[in-house]
Give the backbone structure.
Amino acid sequence: MSRRLKIFLFFLVFLAVGYGISRLLRTSYGIPQTFTDARLQGAIIAQNIVNLSNQSASDLEKINELDSEHNFTEALTITADVIRRSAEVREQAVALAGEIEKMTKALSEIDSFEARQAALESIANRLALINRLINYSNYLAQLLDVLRNRFTGKPPTDHEVANIVTQINAEVTAINSFNNQAGQAMDRFDKIIK
């Protein structure tokens, strides 16, 4: 089963569970406190993911510069930093999935249908962000392997590196886009409940 299908099924299961859970504590406008807390924490985590992925993109530019200058030692050091940051991004993705789960479970407790729809759109965009993050991590791992080989004397073709960098940049752009769309959906949610 593909990762995308697993994420989609994961989302559907938690959506079904959310509709089956009895109503818990509520804030004003029928918004459960668990939803509000998970929403805020999820937004912070998503922004951390965006910041980390943008930093990695900047580091990749620096690595390319160092590579062209044949400064392989410093390039390899920065590559190691990118690898560590990639692990942190994966941890953040797991944390974001946990917050999305909480939001999904609380979704059925939101009184307004329109607000629920806006919240659901935000959740869907956060899930899409995680999906693109998986792609980003895979491409980043491929690039880092290629760069490591290059810096240790086994040069890849320039075409191979360029293709992977293009894919990474596309994933970073998509991650930023889904984060923005999730934020816009929550802005609509806020307008509806006020």
About this structure: The domain at 33-193 is CATH 1.20.1420 (A middle domain of Talin 1). Confidence is low (pLDDT under 50) at residues 22-28.
